[in-house]
Amino acid sequence: MSKQFQFKLVLLGESAVGKSSLVLRFVKDQFDDYRESTIGAAFLTQTVTLDDQTTVKFEIWDTAGQERYKSLAPMYYRNANCAVVVYDITQSASLEKARTWIRELQRQADPSIVIALCGNKLDLAARRQVSQEEAKKYAEEEGLMWTETSAKTGEGVTEIFTEIAKKLPLTAPSAARAGARTGGPATRTGVDLNRQSGSAPGQPDACNC
Amino acid sequence: MDEEYDVIVLGTGLTECILSGLLSVEGKKVLHMDRNDYYGGDSASLNLTQLFRKFRDNKEAPAELGRDRDYAVDLVPKFIIANGELTKILVHTDVTRYLEFKQIAGSFVFRDGKISKVPSTEMEAVKSPLMGLFEKRRAKKFFEFLQGWKDEDPTTHQGLDLDKDSMKAVYEKFGLEPGTQDFIGHAMALYLDDDYITKPARPTYDRIILYTTSMARYGKSPYIYPLYGLGELPQSFARLSAIYGGTYMLDKPIQKIVTDASGKFVGVTSNGETVKAKQVIGDPSYFLKSDDGKIRVIEEGKVVRAICILKHPIPETDNSDSCQIIIPQNQVGRQHDIYIAMVSATHNVCAKDVYIAIVSTVVETSVPEKEILPGLNLLGPIHEKFVSITDLYTPTSSGEADNIFITRSYDATSHFETVVDDVQDVWKRVVGTPLVLKKREVEVQE
Ligand SMILES: Nc1nc2c(ncn2[C@@H]2O[C@H](COP(=O)(O)OP(=O)(O)OP(=O)(O)O)[C@@H](O)[C@H]2O)c(=O)[nH]1
Ligand SMILES: [Mg+2]
């Protein structure tokens, strides 16, 4: 029997490093040279097939610009199963910002969160300011996944999401993963507000609460 | 900052965040600021560090309480009524996708020195230990009358007119005892005092039906609660606002509300810079002192709240992982009810085997802490207690004349219905037309 797992994935990183572009490439296989800062970004999902038995559905959260003035709400990453922290390989300051986000995740997010550090704009390698050695060494020290991508050419984009999917715990049922909203098989354990009222009077919700 | 906004919102409490979210969806250009470096204002949920910073003078939290990040302690004890107005807003704006809810496991009422489950159907009323045999029969008839009421069918009215007859007349018609009236009026209709009894019965009828239909929705209690605490609610609406272009700035001290010669709003000064906008909305704490000598908010009363950390569920509540207990005013010789709201690790708001109970009431005397004793006494041993006395502010004017719109403080009710009333009220003043909830267009890819 095939299984689908659902996980919450958040993107973090300085403005203009290409977070939304990576999502756009991954979800729609598109790229936009004149992409505006994120406004109106809805809620995106994309599924990765690992083998004929297993698919992983990512529920992808983009920052919606709240990080710009240091005002990202903790609920954004609180129960994330995985995070892609993006920097721009042509801007060394953006790696510093990525380090800050990683520290914040280590402090506040679920301890089992899978973090991938991602150096974007690989197509602009001629203007590189962040060396592969430096980023890789840092990632190894912190126990993070690391890769370089180009949302523009698509290089490395699907791969990073597939690698994350492989790292996620695909055995534990959701209830066993405290703090994870959607880990494990794709079911929510709480009450469903969208359910019509009065459908089953007096019946407890089919949940383990 | 030379950008000009349609609306500046001050404070990121739930009321302000719902307004900010709805205004952004409506296409308004919104700047939302808060003096704190966290979301939620007076309706925030705090971690241990923040809690001890606020109540214990920065003292460090004892290590035995567990990890900081496991805590989200609400400052205001409120639950969401499953079929209530806040649920409607959550569903219509699709903010539900950012949140996960759990039921509150039990709803209890204090009567004659004991805690009992609140009966919510005629079936439960018949089984309830709250009433003697004859009273049960009368209560059953009363509930059958409510459930059977149809406006258009006079045969269901039993000679009563909900719009004209007082609730007193309805109680008398069914011969209900004062104690029964207490739990119906206070634990089901959720009135804080007895003013409703002499007024027309309709609103009380509506509130009882809201209670029973909410109860029927998920089964254990009429209440639901967001995982990680109530502070997730304002954050979710803030995200909605940001997705629709709202700009967020935390940690911004607000020095001045700038007005022109005629007293109309011009802008807000923060860190020496003035940002302009057509209108400003803010919680009362941003308008306590005004530079032009105008009194914009007045104190309407006080609430005392005691946040209690327990290492056990509240006794006599069937070991519920969460519950509400209402102590009707008459039971303890007061004018206002005492509420207890308890949540626990099940709701991801504290460490395992810890329970957070908040006891609250409207202040009636000069020794508020004494007033909540009947509530505290029901809790068993209290591990840590944080007491606060909060002023309830209300705006002195509608804001239409000067474009300064002020929200109300979070009152002593145990739910969010009055918060939504305030949202609708402020919306109407700010936008000029009543709030109509439109289903947000969602883009979900599979
Ligand atoms: N050359 C190149 N440009 C890119 C790449 N990825 C993104 N960009 C460009 O970089 C700019 C910013 O990209 P976004 O995806 O909007 O960046 P963001 O991180 O979402 O920015 P905020 O929403 O402001 O936080 C846009 O002009 C993109 O076209 C890439 O891989 N290569
Ligand atoms: Mg973006």
TrEMBL record, chain A:
Membrane topology, as annotated, equals: Lipid-anchor
User: What's one Pfam family the UniProt record gives for this protein?
Assistant: Ras
Q: Which InterPro entries match?
A: P-loop_NTPase, Small_GTP-bd, Small_GTPase
Q: What are the Low complexity biased-composition ranges?
A: 172-190
GO MF entries: GTP binding; GTPase activity
Q: Does the keyword GTP-binding apply?
A: yes
What are the entry keywords?
Cell membrane, GTP-binding, Lipoprotein, Membrane, Nucleotide-binding, Prenylation, Protein transport, Transport
Single biological process term from Gene Ontology: protein transport
Write down any Gene Ontology CC term: endosome
CDD domains documented for this protein: Rab5_related (cd01860)
Q: Where is this region: Disordered?
A: 172-209
| Protein's cellular compartments | Cell membrane
Does the keyword section mention Cytoplasm? no
* Record NCBIfam families: small_GTP
> Could you tell me what this protein is called?
GTP-binding protein RAB5
Automatic annotation (TrEMBL), chain B:
Q: Which GO terms describe its molecular function?
A: Rab GDP-dissociation inhibitor activity
One cellular component GO annotation, for this chain's record?
cytoplasm
Q: Which GO terms describe its biological process?
A: protein transport; small GTPase-mediated signal transduction; vesicle-mediated transport
* Taxonomy, superkingdom: Eukaryota
Instruction: Cite a single Pfam family from the UniProt record.
Output: GDI
Name the InterPro entries for this protein: FAD/NAD-bd_sf, GDP_dissociation_inhibitor, RabGDI
Q: Which PANTHER family match?
A: RAB GDP DISSOCIATION INHIBITOR (PTHR11787:SF8), RAB GDP-DISSOCIATION INHIBITOR (PTHR11787)
Q: Which family does it belong to?
A: Belongs to the Rab GDI family.
**Name recorded for this polypeptide:** Rab GDP dissociation inhibitor
